[in-house]
């Protein structure tokens, strides 16, 4: 089993590494967005799948990363490389500040509050608070990434940049699963009360999950801004958060699951673009059907080496 | 003072529409512990169904009888859609993890929203003028016949629902199912029928809300469901989700709040203020204004 997952990971990496050379320009753009969305979906998985918090506002952190890069580059003339650390740190801080008062809320309430955050965030962007966000049109003409004297402006170059970010995220996710933090998050999702009573600081770990998720999403946002060299509020609307939320749940809270989720929820609609009016109609049915047939997602998470007979299927809710 | 009275009238009108839609959310949540994300799209769909009933079935008649018939037919049709929605998308998932049902609800929302687009097209449609344009002027305050009708009909429906839930045997069964489904089943209550009933009531009230939205705002679009749905959902939380009088109170308060914000502060920030109010309420008093203290920690 372990061998199989290692082989499939290698195959995936090799395929992804040569992919951009097999595609035309339009599909290269789709491929880059696939990578960026995968990173955001993995960050959503940390909060929703690993820590079990119903977060429907991940697009806000994604958008914040994108806007930090855009604002620092176009208004203050920072090179893109210099904006990347800020695009990670700022969402982390925002995530911690916003999460601290709300992480104790139960499932559905948390979901609604995060929707609220996302909508307030987009309204702030549209109303051009502080005169730096560019209002409803957003910000255009962001510089390409310059690294060691090379200018990464072609889609292929950006593809490898996004791919590197995805690899970094995958490394974080794999290490998270094996670490103390990962075990704490897993325990806290399964039974918060039991986790608390054996001395896990649930509040701290919940805020940590939010912060980590926000930072990764912010990095993805920065890549997104350089890919299109523009940002606008509608790319970070709350409906986008709904997409990331559905990706994790349809795919299942595991690395292959999340990647399958992004493929199913983002790449497939692109493939069926010519059936534009029908595709989301069919998609809705597909979402319902997937949940009925596989309530835990297409490729559900497994954790540790717990024998099958010890895993109790939750009867009601999870 | 004039602004105040005018916004009071507007706030009560939109508040009663929010309240009608919020009842659908709160009743479903009360029994099934599920946010029915498709409810807002059902509301949007009912405005379009009303439009078609008016042009195709009623032959564009707008006599009093015809208007009542349009409301009854639309509410009946949407009640059927609600029952089908529950059978297809929610019943198979009743024992599944909570989040699976949420995704199923999001899927159902996509289906209904894009279904509207496939049937009626992506462009904005104009809802017919079913109620004559009649205005009363009190000093500088203008109140229209539509506003009065919306307020009065909504209040009558809400009082009727309240009496039904509190005073009848079936109402008692609904309350019992929302407290504990398993215990209710042991007492001989057919919980499946109760859930179907909830969808009938919620969808038909939502349909009337949708028709009111069409009458009041006139322009209807296929994707307006999310916007009104979210507002109504906030209203339900404001009053305490699962609590029927709470949804009515929450709807009215939210309507007044957003009317006063657009009247006194700025309409471009109305959404932001509304959601900040929501976040504030949830942090300070997560069970809402009328929500009972539940044993479950929130």
From TrEMBL, chain A:
<dbReference type="Pfam" id="PF02653">
    <property type="entry name" value="BPD_transp_2"/>
</dbReference>
<feature type="transmembrane region" description="Helical">
    <location>
        <begin position="59"/>
        <end position="78"/>
    </location>
</feature>
<dbReference type="InterPro" id="IPR043428">
    <property type="entry name" value="LivM-like"/>
</dbReference>
<feature type="transmembrane region" description="Helical">
    <location>
        <begin position="27"/>
        <end position="47"/>
    </location>
</feature>
<dbReference type="GO" id="GO:0015658">
    <property type="term" value="F:branched-chain amino acid transmembrane transporter activity"/>
</dbReference>
<feature type="transmembrane region" description="Helical">
    <location>
        <begin position="242"/>
        <end position="268"/>
    </location>
</feature>
<keyword id="KW-0472">Membrane</keyword>
<keyword id="KW-1003">Cell membrane</keyword>
<protein>
    <submittedName>
        <fullName>Branched-chain amino acid ABC transporter permease</fullName>
    </submittedName>
</protein>
<keyword id="KW-0812">Transmembrane</keyword>
<feature type="transmembrane region" description="Helical">
    <location>
        <begin position="158"/>
        <end position="176"/>
    </location>
</feature>
<dbReference type="GO" id="GO:0005886">
    <property type="term" value="C:plasma membrane"/>
</dbReference>
<feature type="transmembrane region" description="Helical">
    <location>
        <begin position="84"/>
        <end position="102"/>
    </location>
</feature>
<feature type="transmembrane region" description="Helical">
    <location>
        <begin position="280"/>
        <end position="299"/>
    </location>
</feature>
<feature type="transmembrane region" description="Helical">
    <location>
        <begin position="207"/>
        <end position="230"/>
    </location>
</feature>
<keyword id="KW-1133">Transmembrane helix</keyword>
<dbReference type="InterPro" id="IPR001851">
    <property type="entry name" value="ABC_transp_permease"/>
</dbReference>
<feature type="transmembrane region" description="Helical">
    <location>
        <begin position="109"/>
        <end position="126"/>
    </location>
</feature>
UniProtKB/TrEMBL annotation, chain B:
<dbReference type="InterPro" id="IPR052157">
    <property type="entry name" value="BCAA_transport_permease"/>
</dbReference>
<keyword id="KW-0813">Transport</keyword>
<dbReference type="Pfam" id="PF02653">
    <property type="entry name" value="BPD_transp_2"/>
</dbReference>
<dbReference type="GO" id="GO:0005304">
    <property type="term" value="F:L-valine transmembrane transporter activity"/>
</dbReference>
<feature type="transmembrane region" description="Helical">
    <location>
        <begin position="229"/>
        <end position="257"/>
    </location>
</feature>
<dbReference type="GO" id="GO:0015190">
    <property type="term" value="F:L-leucine transmembrane transporter activity"/>
</dbReference>
<dbReference type="GO" id="GO:0015188">
    <property type="term" value="F:L-isoleucine transmembrane transporter activity"/>
</dbReference>
<feature type="transmembrane region" description="Helical">
    <location>
        <begin position="38"/>
        <end position="57"/>
    </location>
</feature>
<feature type="transmembrane region" description="Helical">
    <location>
        <begin position="12"/>
        <end position="31"/>
    </location>
</feature>
<keyword id="KW-0029">Amino-acid transport</keyword>
<feature type="transmembrane region" description="Helical">
    <location>
        <begin position="63"/>
        <end position="85"/>
    </location>
</feature>
<comment type="similarity">
    <text>Belongs to the binding-protein-dependent transport system permease family. LivHM subfamily.</text>
</comment>
<keyword id="KW-0812">Transmembrane</keyword>
<dbReference type="GO" id="GO:0042941">
    <property type="term" value="P:D-alanine transmembrane transport"/>
</dbReference>
<feature type="transmembrane region" description="Helical">
    <location>
        <begin position="97"/>
        <end position="121"/>
    </location>
</feature>
<dbReference type="GO" id="GO:0015192">
    <property type="term" value="F:L-phenylalanine transmembrane transporter activity"/>
</dbReference>
<keyword id="KW-0997">Cell inner membrane</keyword>
<keyword id="KW-1003">Cell membrane</keyword>
<feature type="transmembrane region" description="Helical">
    <location>
        <begin position="269"/>
        <end position="288"/>
    </location>
</feature>
<feature type="transmembrane region" description="Helical">
    <location>
        <begin position="141"/>
        <end position="165"/>
    </location>
</feature>
<feature type="transmembrane region" description="Helical">
    <location>
        <begin position="194"/>
        <end position="217"/>
    </location>
</feature>
<keyword id="KW-1133">Transmembrane helix</keyword>
